[in-house]
Amino acid sequence: MFLEFMRSTLGTAVLVLCAIVVVALLLWWARTRGHPERVLVFGASAVLSLVLGILYMVAVTAGWWTGEYFQMPFLAQAGAFIAVTLLGCTVWLAGYGWLSEHTSRPVWAYIGVSLLLVVAVAVAHVFNVGRGTILVGPAWTIVVDAVVAQLLLWVPVLMYEALRRTLQSSELGP
């Protein structure tokens, strides 16, 4: 029923509108005075979302990912992808930034989060949560995709961590 609605003209319009609202809200959030790091988080999230979007298009076009979801109109898929991916990447990076200010070992904490996300995908696969709606390949391909996604999400986190450590060492130095 959900996918039927998303395939409709109204459903596609809702998804595109959601993407526009998410982008507008994130731009507003990033430009809030007194938080210059948010612009960097949003920029890194936008670039990462673009890279993930290219990978998404390749996987769907090549037929690696199939199922009812991938048969939705292009605009519906794009709207859902932009809203979820941009928001998710921004929360991922902003969460790491917050964690780095509140814990002494943010990398280890995020390694734990990454492992939990991969395990959650594996458990969802075992219990067939998507019921064939989203098929990304045979057998355990979805778990491999989850690991690859985590590796991609770690690129901006590691860049942020390197910059944070460089700034800390320069502040402490002579």
Task: Provide key terms for this protein.
globular; 174 residues; mainly alpha; 6 helices
Could you walk me through the main structural features you see in this protein, from its secondary elements to its overall organization?
The protein is mostly helical and 174 residues long. Helix content is 78%, strand content 0%. The chain contains 6 helices and no strands.
Q: Rough shape?
A: globular
Radius of gyration: 18 Å
Low-confidence stretches: none
Q: How many domains would you count in the coordinates?
A: 1
Mean pLDDT: 87
Order of helices and strands: HHHHHH
Going by helix content, strand content and strand pairing, the class is mainly alpha
| N- to C-terminal distance | 64 Å
Q: Please give the number of β-strands.
A: 0
**Total of DSSP H or I helical runs spanning 4+ residues:** 6
Helix content: over 70%
* Main beta-sheet strand count, sense and barrel state: none
Strand content: under 5%
Question: What's the structural blueprint in terms of helices and strands?
Answer:
Layout: H1 2-7, H2 9-30, H3 37-61, H4 74-102, H5 106-126, H6 141-172
Helix pairs in contact: 2-3, 2-4, 3-4, 3-6, 4-5, 4-6, 5-6
